[in-house]
Amino acid sequence: MRVQNPKIDEPILHLVGEEADxxxxxxxxxxxxxxxxxxHRPCTDIDVVCVRPTPVEQTDxxxxxxxxxxxxxxTARLGRGAHLAVFRNYGTAQVKRKDLELEFVGARRESYQRxxxxxxxxxxxxEEDQNRRDFTINAMAICLNKDRYGELLDPFDGLYDLxxxxxxxxxxxxxxxxxxxxxxxxxxxxxxxxxxYLDDETFDAIERNKNRIEIISKERIVDELNKIMRxxxxxxxxxxxxxxxxxxxxxxxxxxxxxxxxxxxxxxKDVFLHTLQVVDNLSMKSxxxxxxxxxxxxxxxxxxxxxxxxxxxxxFRNHNYIGAKMxxxxxxxxxxxxxxxxxxxxxxxxxxxxPINLIEDTVTDSAVRRLLFEAGDDIDDLMxxxxxxxxxxxxxxxxxxxxxxxxxxxxxxxxxxxxRIRNFQPPVRGDEIMxxxxxxxxxxxxxxxxxxxxxxxxxxxxxxYEAARxxxxxxxxxxxxxxxxx
Length: 486
Ligand code: CTP
Description:
By secondary structure, the chain is of the alpha+beta class. Helices cover 52% and strands 13% of the residues. Helix 6 (173-179) crosses helix 8, helix 7 packs antiparallel against helix 10 (235-244) and helix 19 (365-375) packs across helix 21. The longest helix is centred in the C-terminal third of the chain and has 25 residues, at 395-419. The radius of gyration is 30 Å and the shape is elongated. The N and C termini lie far apart (94 Å). The relative contact order is 0.05. Cytidine-5'-triphosphate binds next to strand 2 and helix 7.
């Protein structure tokens, strides 16, 4: 079959085919680019595989270099603006031009001889290369040589699986997954990203092989989790991770959210299902990956804080605080960034109960100012998270909560205009306190600073320099730091 799609006629692909013809090689565009061509998804990474018409055995164990030769020829033709990177150990090369990235590799087959430690790296056929790939939808190839330009090679019916929305391995899934166990996570990720289903045999093989995920680096796992989190409905991926049995292995703290306990006829929400709904709700409103992570982790402290109280039933006291404290450990173990992104997630988890407390009590200016002060510029994100956190099935209740949050937001806007509390710095700083009052660094300086901050947040004095300085003198007098006449 010839592919009828204008994208296959991109000049760069014709150029690659012409260079392959000149070198006497077959060459194919393969993998994700072909899949995304049929799915009409944008894709800037182009994988090219080359095949030598007559295979050559390389007894020195080195990788075939035909991919590198083709990449060099293509770079020379493209001239200025094209950059070549060669990875000789892997027999691959990369050509970058503007936002386009071409990856070249020679098709290969690896076999081991009983009496030698060196693998014999042999040129492979296209089909052997396709066999080694993860899923049928990722194993389709399109020929770029002039006389067969646009010909689709799809030995495992990937096109059919694309139409059928199915993720299926080309070979026996036990073999495909043992070649690279990360592929189990990739299966879940593609199902989530593309809205596909896992083929039964593929699903069963993940259940069987799940423990092999332990040999995969955390970085590669997190890469897949981030792709799940960036999808339209991340819950799909987390539910599949649970169903396949991968969840407790890759993220035990999320697995621990599952389940309901009942006592004296009173149950609590299944925190796992609630959490997933919060992540989906939020994902409809925001593409911010770290806010999505905060949504996933917002109740992570609940299993540890869960307690039964004869009067109140199930309680989760301080779960926000306990959860916030768990996050650095999770980020460290998962090799997630331990930087300002983590600090943001910690802050969101820590503060996520504050707005709800504001609407339950009578909203005082002071409480709203304190929240604005602590959340700073992230206040709008926090309010998005809190809105997403409303998952009751009682429509009247949901409506009431949304309305009340609206009132809190309004109050924030009014206070912010008047008092400029967001990212506020106390107008009188520590060094000025020391200089003016002739103090050495000591606890009294900190006490004065806190007193000034609290006075502003409680509305006792305005957020202005003169008022803050006058208040500093008043407090210093009360604390006996200066005489009454000063
Ligand atoms: N591949 C594989 N097994 C892996 C990773 C990749 O077989 N563990 C193959 C697949 O054929 C895949 C191609 O290498 O299509 C390119 O891999 P990659 O760039 O990681 O994935 P894409 O399919 O391009 O998708 P995405 O860019 O969304 O990750």
